[in-house]
UniProtKB/TrEMBL annotation:
Residues 154-183 are annotated as: Disordered. It comes from the Bacteria. FAD binds at residues 50, 113, 200-202, 367, 373-376. Keywords: Disulfide bond, FAD, Flavoprotein, NAD, Nucleotide-binding, Oxidoreductase, Redox-active center. Its EC number is 1.8.1.4, 1.-.-.-, 1.8.1.-. PANTHER family: DIHYDROLIPOYL DEHYDROGENASE, MITOCHONDRIAL, DISULFIDE OXIDOREDUCTASE. It comes from Acididesulfobacillus acetoxydans. Pfam families: Pyr_redox_2, Pyr_redox_dim. Residues 4-119, 187-382 form the FAD/NAD(P)-binding domain. Residues 401-509 form the Pyridine nucleotide-disulphide oxidoreductase dimerisation domain. Belongs to the class-I pyridine nucleotide-disulfide oxidoreductase family. Disulfide bonds join 41-46. This is Dihydrolipoyl dehydrogenase.
Amino acid sequence: MEKFDVGILGGGPGGYVCALRAVQLGLSVVLIEGERLGGTCLNRGCIPTKALVKSAELWREIGRAEEFGLAVGERRLDFARVMERKDKVVDTLVGGVEQLMKAGKIQVVRGWGAFREPGFLEVEGDTDQLEKVRAQLGASGVQTEPGIFVEKAGDKSGRADTRVERAGEETGKRTEPVAEEMGKARGRVRIPVRNVVLATGSLPARIPVAGMDLPGVVTSDEILSETELPDSLVVIGGGVIGLEMASIYQAFGVRVSVVEMLPSLLATIDEEIPKRLTPLLKKSGLEILTKTAVKGIRRENDRLVVQVEGAKGERGLEAERVLVATGRKPNLRGIDAEGLGLETERGALRVNRKMETNLPHVYAIGDAVGGIMLAHVASTEGIVAAERIAGLSSEMDYRAIPSAIFTYPEIATAGASEQELKERGTAYKVSKFPFSANGKALALGEPLGLVKILADEQGVVLGGAIMGPQASSLIQELTLAIQEGLTADQVARTVHAHPTLPEAVMEAAHGVLGKALHLA
């Protein structure tokens, strides 16, 4: 073959799933990834944090053993081993993705990729690395083209500078370790492709205040590499990432303060849920500061002090570590959007529901397009892109996207919130069923929370929110109902096993019709 049918830039949950679906449809695929397969979610996000959530859950449960009639010895926390287990989980799953790539005969090219010219993806590297790439792809019948090579020169620090151009940035320096590369030339290999899928993910966002570069001030990516627990932690940002990490560290006995500029935590979800969650988090020992701005960070006597300003004026929050969890931003480095004429919006690539950009045969998916930055959304968008390239009529449907937040208790949502329905002027009904009236929840010792269902006047399910045990799994029933346009009556009449947590969903569905069975 002269060129690949699909060239994918990025091997995260969007990129690698796109590759798998494309080969299922008979397309030839090359995927470029500079780090490990799986992207942020698998290596520095969803999966490692969930491994930590499980350790925190067990630690919390052991502390409650006497409630269940169990006597245990003294608890001992080995945080290094907790992190070691987390790494093993990640390694296992990364290995699984690599096996899927091999089984699908997908050409995975290791190196930093770029998109600067229609019909080609590029790989940057030193001459030895690039020769390996050319040999690898040549064996598959695709002839690559060498780019312009640039000599490297070491500076006084023992590092080397390479002048590179990246989309969205001014031409500047990129410094890299060069212990084995000193004196080697660098360049690019151009890979011919018929269709391009941009799946470059996102990067942690930082707020522009003094002290962000101090030692001990870390992002959500960086904190997952630490092997020692701090005695105290200030979390800047009361969104999903911030609250999950705060819950984990608080469970392990760390003194945690969460600083959020907005009036509420989790400001993007159904407002009733954070109102119910906040007092529970405070009761667990978290310090929650809303309507509070960060003015700066400084170091005093080997400690960090986060200067904040809230309703009661300014104060300093002292801690050993500061976690910056102020969201993520699309990563468009390596994409010459301006030169190519790729349309962007608020720093993200602009696409339609077919995942098409404004350029023919160029698609974009996942965090690079902004919107809902969730791994499962990226994967679904990757499937849509692959199917469009193969000639199918797939489109994204964002009406029923589930979202899970692994605090304690868990939170999950799908579809519309009350705020959204009010803004649309949609008439709706609300039904709530508490876990305190669910037999399985009481048996588990997890009575906190509720299932909430929103339906239109005909009973069609429009949205749902769950706070409580296994909310992340329970939300799938409501997601399916929203996706397929089911009524609350159809959900309620579906036989649910007893005693189980999903019965709370069934009861909430009965409640839409005014006939919840186990609620006075």
